[in-house]
Amino acid sequence: MGAPPLLELSGVSRVYGKRTALATMNLRLRSGKCVALLGHNGSGKSTLLRIAAGRDRPSTGTVKFDGKPMNENDPAVRARVAVVGDTAACYPDLTVREHLQLVAVAHGVEDAGDWIGHVLADRMLTDHADALPGALSSGQLQSLLLASAMVRPRDLLLLDEPEQRLDPGARRRLADLIKKETADGVGVLLVTHHGELARAVADRVLVLSDGKVVADGHPDKVLATGTDGLTWLAESPDGAR
């Protein structure tokens, strides 16, 4: 019997009062693979990501990380799951370098100085290492969040619209980063509005609409480029894979 999926959502749904934010669905993500979630605002993508991270409880179903119930407060989960989300997570009185040092220390990374220098260069932040978040552009803030994930150990990387506020060059570097993560064995769950990013990095794409999975499969099967830049093809979802 093989190893369990790194992340497994079974029969998961989320209801707020009378509103169904996420209809019942299944999802499996294995180490070294990337699953992308596409959909318009309000489609349920971020709800699904919060549930996957253990930051929100599903109304039905179960969430497992490495075969065990997902619990955000579990030290093992905190040590192995990295989440890149809201720029509000930045501390206003810490410089870019100090942010990365804090993350490294919190996760027990020893002699992190050289690695932090590498990450700063990789995310094009070297010239802004001593800047406070308030002095950064929105794209630089997004790069800081990505850099914070890179300086810590991780087996699962959860990305909530990481392409937001990035210019085309930075998006290409983001795609390279995600491909490197999966090549290193990290599982990546990516929420994005950017179809070409999903096509470039994902092994599987789920398209959500009004909380329901309306397409599910390989990026080349689910996504088609049209005159509007992206057409989402509706197919019958086939559940967990």
TrEMBL record:
Source organism of this protein record: Actinacidiphila oryziradicis
Cite the ABC transporter domain residue spans from the record. Answer: 7-235
Q: PANTHER family this protein is in? A: ABC TRANSPORTER ATP-BINDING PROTEIN ALBC-RELATED (PTHR42939)
**Keywords, sorted A to Z:** ATP-binding, Nucleotide-binding, Transport
Pfam families named in the record: ABC_tran
* Record protein name field: ABC transporter ATP-binding protein
Q: Which GO terms describe its molecular function?
A: ATP binding; ATP hydrolysis activity
Sorted alphabetically, which SMART domains does this protein's record hold?
AAA
